[in-house]
Structure formats: structure tokens, C-alpha cells
Specification:
It contains 12 helices and 8 strands. By secondary structure, it is α/β, with parallel strands linked by helices. It folds into 2 domains: 188 residues, Rossmann fold (3-Layer(aba) Sandwich); 153 residues, Rossmann fold (3-Layer(aba) Sandwich), CATH 3.40.50. The strands form 2 sheets. The chain has a 4-stranded parallel sheet, sandwiched between helices. Strands 6-5-7-8 form a 4-stranded parallel sheet, sandwiched between helices. The longest helix is centred in the first third of the chain and has 27 residues. The chain is globular, with a radius of gyration of 21 Å.
């Protein structure tokens, strides 16, 4: 007699993994950057205005000047092989494929290879049960949520026979915190005045929009224990990641700083802001700074250009003396093991749902 799992397996399709990251322009040409920014910024989960006003802002104002400026920024980080983010995600895929016995593909939320392209490659290999991994540690409307929404849209329209489950935010998982802690520990300078955790910023209203419990009180509840909105609160999850990492690093809390980068427009975004923090720290006696970006698992424009380059200029220009950027996890073997574990947990769920 077959056991329950064996009976269920007969009724199941082939499993596969889709790793999803943000995306990147296909080149540093202004038109390619403009095309990418148009898709990115017109996403209602990123700029959450009504379509008419979003289009007026993005296509009527931002895309007239920003693509040229962004193209110059991309040129400072571009490699001979292309976009660092795409290359690193490919490396993660290749290393993961060596460790699992199911097909692994990648997709990007914006531009190519798209989520549809990634699913199609898996389907072409006979896959019907997909574990999709949004490569974002913390949950946010403009990251995890838009990936899930897009994947569901694509699945319903083009792949109705496919089942997808999703790896959830892992900002506080022990395996991730241990991995991040050890990566930071290895790269920290021997001496430093402060360790800054710079997370990607989001408008404050996004926190309220992603909170189905309607209990979020920005700044009041983020560091409470077991508050109802925490599962959906990006700000809380950033602070929790920081708290868990510095505890394992053994660094005094007063020697660490949390800030949020990459704000756009004049809306109220979550504070404190990274650029202002970098300018103020030297005035507070911080001359030797280490900085890490735990909202990103792969180095990209926002880490390599905005933090490692522009951030250094801001800090040093304000009187700083030493500035040490700590790279993302990228394709480190310890991180690949975390990806493997989180994906296998979700792959196993297909046995449970039959």
C-alpha cells in the first residue's frame, strides 16, 4: 500500500523554481533606460496614483529628463557582460541548480527576462507546480506584492494549468539572519564609529495600504512585539532585521543607524533619509562609517551607485574620513543554501495541497 505522500505524488505535476528580482535596462542607452523606467514607474504598486495622474507625472515630467541622468548612473556600474543585477541573479540560479533536482529559472518584475519568460521556460520543461521566490527579505507593496500580483496576472492569462506558491518575506528567519550576520562580520573593518543599515525607502502611505489589520501606527508600533500589522509592515521588518543582526554581531545599538534611501518626489516617505543621515553623521562625531543595504540581496544601481559612490561623496564631503560599503549577499555560497532551504520548504507544500 502506498503512503499518503506517495499517492499524492502520482497526482502531481513536475515542480520547478522561479527566482524573481527587480530587473534592469537591457543597456545603458537612454532609450533602453527610458523604456525600463516607464514600465517600472508606471506600476501602480510603485507610484500609486490613479492612472491619469501617474501617467502625467511619469510620462509628462519624469521621463523627459530622468532617463539621461539614470543612463549615466548605470554606466558607472555596468560590466562588460551587462547589468550587475541580472548577472548576479543568473549566478544565484546556476549555483542553486547545482544543489536542487528541479528546474530553476529566473524572471524580472520589469524588463527581460520577464516573469512570463521565466514561467514559459519552466513550462517548456514540463513544470506545472512552481515555487516563486521574490528576492526581497522584507515585504513591501512595491517589491513582494507587485511580484505576486504580476505572477498571478501572467498565470491566469497564459498558464492557467500552472500552480504557483510563493516564498514569503524572510526578514526574521534564523537562517537568513545568520547568513547576513556572517557576511557582514567578514566584511566589517576592524575599526569603525558606526554601522549604518540603509534600506530602500517607500512612501508612508504604502505602509497603510498594505496593512489589512488597519492597526499600523508608523513609528509607534514598529518595535513592539507581536503587533498585528507586522506581517505586512515594511518599516517594522527593516528594524527587526537590523535588531536581530546587531544582536548576533554583538554591536551596541548606539553604534548603529537605520535609514531609508531612494525616495522620489515630494511625498512623505519613511524616515530617516539616508542622504541626510550621511551628511549629519560627521557632525555627530562619526568619521569612520561602515554601511550595508539589507533590503537588497543583489548589488545593483541602488547599492553600487547610490550608496557605494554617491553615499561616499555625501559622507566624505560632510567631513567623514573613512567610508566602507559592505556588498550584498550576491552569490555567496551561504546565501545559496538559504535560498535552497526556503525554496524546498515551499516545494514540499505541493505534497500537502495535493
Amino acid at each position: 500500500m502506498e503512503d499518503g505522500k506517495g499517492a499524492q505524488t502520482k497526482n502531481m505535476g513536475k515542480k520547478g523554481i522561479l527566482l524573481v528580482n527587480l530587473g534592469s535596462p537591457k543597456s545603458t542607452e537612454v532609450e533602453d533606460v527610458k523604456e525600463y523606467l516607464d514600465e517600472f514607474l508606471m506600476d501602480e504598486k510603485v507610484i500609486d496614483y490613479r492612472w491619469f495622474f501617474r501617467s502625467l507625472l511619469i510620462r509628462g515630467i519624469i521621463l523627459r529628463k530622468r532617463p539621461a541622468k539614470s543612463a549615466e548612473a548605470y554606466k558607472t556600474i555596468w560590466t562588460d557582460e551587462g547589468s550587475p543585477l541580472i548577472l548576479i541573479t543568473e549566478q544565484i540560479k546556476e549555483k542553486l541548480q547545482q544543489r536542487v533536482d528541479v528546474p530553476v529559472e529566473i524572471g524580472m518584475r520589469y524588463a527581460e527576462p520577464s516573469i512570463k519568460t521565466g514561467i514559459q521556460k519552466l513550462v517548456d520543461q514540463g513544470v506545472t507546480d512552481i515555487t516563486l521566490f521574490p528576492l526581497y527579505p522584507q515585504y513591501a507593496m512595491s517589491t513582494t506584492e507587485t511580484v505576486v500580483d504580476k505572477a498571478e496576472e501572467v498565470r491566469k492569462e497564459f498558464f492557467p494549468q500552472v500552480r504557483i506558491n510563493y516564498v514569503e518575506a524572510f526578514y526574521n528567519r534564523d537562517i537568513y539572519i545568520d547568513c547576513l550576520t556572517e557576511s557582514i562580520r567578514e566584511k566589517l573593518p576592524t575599526e569603525f564609529d558606526a554601522l549604518q543599515f540603509s534600506y530602500h525607502g517607500v512612501p508612508e502611505r504604502h505602509l497603510y495600504k498594505t496593512d489589512p489589520t488597519n492597526t499600523c501606527r508608523i513609528g509607534e508600533c514598529c518595535q513592539m512585539d507581536d503587533y498585528p500589522s507586522h506581517k505586512f509592515c515594511y518599516r517594522h521588518q527593516c528594524y527587526k532585521t537590523t535588531e536581530l543582526v546587531i544582536e548576533k554581531l554583538g554591536i551596541p545599538k548606539e553604534k548603529t543607524v537605520v535609514s531609508f534611501q531612494s525616495r522620489l518626489g515630494k511625498d512623505k516617505w519613511i524616515e530617516p533619509y539616508t542622504d541626510e543621515t550621511l551628511e549629519n553623521l560627521p557632525k555627530q562625531g562619526v568619521k569612520n562609517l561602515a554601511i550595508v543595504c539589507p533590503a537588497f540581496v543583489s548589488d545593483c544601481l541602488e547599492t553600487l551607485e547610490e550608496i557605494a559612490m554617491e553615499g561616499k561623496e555625501e559622507f566624505m564631503g560632510a567631513g567623514g574620513e573613512q567610508y566602507h560599503y559592505i556588498p550584498c549577499l550576491n552569490a555567496e555560497d551561504r546565501w545559496i543554501e538559504v535560498v535552497k532551504t526556503l525554496c524546498e520548504e515551499k516545494l514540499e507544500e505541493f505534497y500537502l495541497i495535493g
